[in-house]
Amino acid sequence: MSDCVFCRIVRGEIPSKKVYEDEHVFAFHDIHPAAPVHVLVVPKVHVDSMAHLDGEHEAAMGRLMVAAGRIAREQGCTDGFRTIVNTGRVGLQEVYHLHLHILGGPDPLPPMLKR
Ligand code: AMP
User: 97 in ligand 1 pocket by Cβ < 6 Å?
Assistant: First the structure.
């Protein structure tokens, strides 16, 4: 059992503002929002980063993407949104549990918004 911060959020050991949960995916508001809509979507299975994915994760990543599109629609991002997956040191990843940022709100989003 991992004690990473997002695993602990998934288990309910750390509070979060949950927006979605199913058997495989958990989503919650980013604690430091960079846009009016800023949701993090995580697989319940722990994977450090996109660089750690292999074939056994294909189904989990498919579920993550499908859930992200649904969550963005439910958050009101009907005209579009941005998704970001920061990976590793160069990618400025802060939390080493793979996660997808959904960013939406201003129309259009700033071109260089990092997350
Ligand atoms: P990154 O790893 O760079 O893709 O970003 C990690 C994101 O997780 C940042 O945007 C943080 O604000 C966010 N974050 C870190 N801890 C929490 C938490 N306990 N609840 C919600 N968001 C968090």
Answer: no
From the CA of 84, give the closest atom in ligand 1.
4
Contact 30 CB / ligand 1 (< 6 Å): yes
DSSP-derived pairing of the beta strands 82-84 and 18-21: unpaired
Domain boundaries, the chain: 5-113
Q: Is the shortest distance between the CB of 95 and ligand 1 below 6 Å?
A: yes
pLDDT, tens digit only, all 115 positions of the chain = 789 999 999 999 999 999 999 999 999 999 999 999 999 999 999 999 999 999 999 999 999 999 999 999 999 999 999 999 999 999 999 999 999 999 998 777 777 655 4
Candidates 45, 41, 52, 59; CA nearest to 1 is 45
CATH number belonging to domain 5-113: 3.30.428.10
Give yes or no: 38 in active site. Answer: no
